[in-house]
Amino acid sequence: MLEENEDAIAGALHADLAKPAQEVVLGETALLFGEIRQARSRMERWARPRKVATPPVAQPGRSFIQPEPLGVALIIGAWNYPIQLVLAPLIPAIAAGNCAVLKPSEITPNASKVLAELVPKYLDREAFAVVEGAVPETTALLEQKWDHVFYTGGAAVGRIVMKAAAEHLTPVTLELGGKSPAIIDGDADLESAARRLAWGKALNAGQTCIAPDYVLVSKGQKAPLIEALRKQFRSMLGPDPLASDDYAAVVNEKHFERLTALLQQGRAVIGGQAETATRKIAPTVLTDVELDSDLMREEIFGPILPVIEVNDLDDAIEFVRRGDKPLSAYLFTRSSASEKKFLRDVACGNVCINDVMMFMSVPDLPFGGVGMSGMGQYHGQAGFDRFSHLKSVIRRGRFPEITIRFAPYNAFKTKLLKWFA
Ligand code: NAD
């Protein structure tokens, strides 16, 4: 489906988000092909019984875990990567033997339509369906009894999803968002950090759940970092980013207005331009931001990057720890001691050291949030296990029969039991 309909998919994403063709590959299809390739080559192994040790008390016996499909999953996607976020969970759902109903986001109607048209052509209609729609349709879907609900989107709707699932005691996966920090340590390679940060913030015009939300930069590094970011944005998108075909648009007017209001909550040292007709906002670096502003309290989810100076790494870590556990956190450093401290002290979903977002390209790294950034992980085997019940099995041999667990009980049997335990 992805191979034969590359143009239709890219066309829909361009219509919804002005997504550049290369970003369709980068952010949507490359990940899907990686997941598909891995699932096809490994799913037989993942599905096999997984042997575990059997202790003396249960001998003679063999113990193993037998993954079994959960049943029917409801997969609800968000609009920022509207194809990927619905199909990436579908891949492990299929590999693990489930049926699924997909509910793409109504905010990107062209991507939703292309999925609704294509999926029934390629997948068994008895087992897979796409339901298009907004709140009323999703509410009706959530009233049904599912075996798993896999939701990607914001925390407010995450609560609605979890409450609805609780009615049927249905397990949920919540892939949420939040403010993912990037920390620049005192010894960081600023050129490289700026290039990668600029890419992470410009991709899909910053509408990425794992985009670096804001930067904490160690004392003395702020001015050179800003100059390096200026150079990088210019080399990627030219002198007028609003005119660049390599730069996506903000998804709709509501988000455009929300973001242009945020532009006022700091001093724009790079960018700051916005164009209503195309819903494009130039990559913007803000300084002098108020820490209790919306900009610093809520996920930005757009091409605006506040840069805040802190004393050092300890200060930066303390700053991050004052907020919710982020979906992702990024550290740029040359020091292994700094890396160790960061990994120990920053609780979050996913980490890159000296880059942003690249854990997404490794199917063997489970992806997901923690605390307010979500629950449950997927990609690779984590996805397969997410859509499986790991059924525990012990197969007992009949001889010899160790009789100490049976009545009549006596002191000797109790002593032996304690010894075995
Ligand atoms: P959205 O508006 O597309 O909503 C997500 C889904 O929820 C849609 O399918 C929508 O139809 C449904 N929905 C909306 N309101 C509902 C309601 N009242 N009841 C039932 N269903 C409803 O997306 P969004 O919430 O704007 O998504 C943006 C958020 O998603 C950001 O916080 C971002 O960080 C997060 N996100 C997370 C990931 C991840 O993988 N962790 C990926 C992408 C986006």
Q: Would you write up a description of this structure?
A:
The strands form four sheets. The chain has a seven-stranded mixed β-sheet with strand order 10-13-14-9-8-15-16, with helices on both faces. Helix 2 (21-47) packs parallel to helix 3 (84-95) and helix 3 (84-95) packs across helix 13 (380-386). The N and C termini lie far apart (55 Å). It folds into two domains: 6-176 and 370-393, Aldehyde Dehydrogenase, Chain A, domain 1, CATH 3.40.605; 181-361, 3-Layer(aba) Sandwich (Aldehyde Dehydrogenase, Chain A, domain 2). The protein has helices spanning 6-17, 21-47, 84-95, 109-122, 135-143, 155-167, 190-202, 222-237, 253-262, 294-297, 313-321, 336-345, 380-386, 411-420, and strands spanning 50-52, 61-69, 72-76, 99-103, 128-130, 148-152, 172-175, 181-184, 214-218, 267-270, 274-275, 280-281, 284-287, 304-310, 328-332, 350-353, 374-375, 388-396. Helix 3 (84-95) links the parallel strand 3 (72-76) and strand 4. It is α/β, with parallel strands linked by helices. The longest helix is centred in the first third of the chain and has 27 residues, at 21-47. It is globular, with a radius of gyration of 25 Å. The chain has 14 helices and 18 strands.
| Separation of the first and last Cα atoms | 55 Å
Q: Sum up the overall morphology in one term.
A: globular
Question: What is the highest CATH level, the class of the largest domain?
Answer: Alpha Beta
How big a fraction of the residues is strand? 15-25%
Count of the domains: 2
Query: Could you estimate the helical fraction of the residues in percent?
Result: 25-40%
Strand order, largest beta sheet: 10-13-14-9-8-15-16
Tally of strands = 18
Hetero compounds: nicotinamide-adenine-dinucleotide
